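Supplementary Methods, section 5.1.

A reviewer requested that the exact input to the structure prediction be made available. We therefore reproduce it here, unchanged from the version used in the analyses.
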Amino acid sequence: MKTLKALSREELKSLAPSIFNHTVGSKLTDKYVHIPTDTIVDDMEALGWFPYSVKTVRSRTKNAATKKHLVQFFNPDIVINDENGEADMYPQLLLINSHDGSTAVKFEMGVFRLVCENGLVIKSQDFGGFKMRHMGYSFADLRVYINQLVETLPTVVANLNKFSQVEMTPEQQYEFALKAVEARFGEEKQLSSDEVNNLLLAERKEDVGNDVWRVLNRVQEKLTSGGFGYMNARGKVRKARAVKNFTQDIDMNTKLWALAEEFIAA
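The structure derived from this sequence is encoded token-by-token as follows.
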């Protein structure tokens, strides 16, 4: 089974130098008190949460040292086990920050599924989150916010259990896949029935099944990985690219989770 490994400071610097930048944008006022990401990383580790993945936005116009970045944290002592008692998922905390004044420090909660090759980011509005404006920072405040998020974990696990308990008919699965495609692309891109059915195919034994949780994971992984064909607004067939922009990734995941909840309530 795959496990998560904490990134070293050297690895973080190599992957996202902006994490360690303490220089702020020149157009910011004196009211802006920058909260450095590396300071938060140090404090998160003191609270038992370690960085395992980092991403930055791709921008040709913004300074690489100040642009928005995402750091994903896991706690090795907080694991969601499967029905056999083996580690299956890690709750994760997503930190979003920038040094140009374009965003506040933002934390979101999600789930990292160990069996999935691309490490799906499952995100729900119900998981909670918080923001800290660049106007001051303290370790004590961070600890309170993180503890509040951790207190929501029983609700997260309860929702995951509901997803695993509700079976979907073939018709419901197809409907889910169609709506999931719209969650990623909007209405301007269409998939053939064969491509829609391919989104529903299980690629590993852990994903075989008709419950909402497995269907969600199968469709979500393939929408994220890309490689399938679609028809654009001009009627031409194109191949979907992988989702690499973390803002788009989180937005799509939030929509897919909300979509899955509709099938639980149905």
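The chain has a mean pLDDT of 84. These observations are discussed further in the main text.
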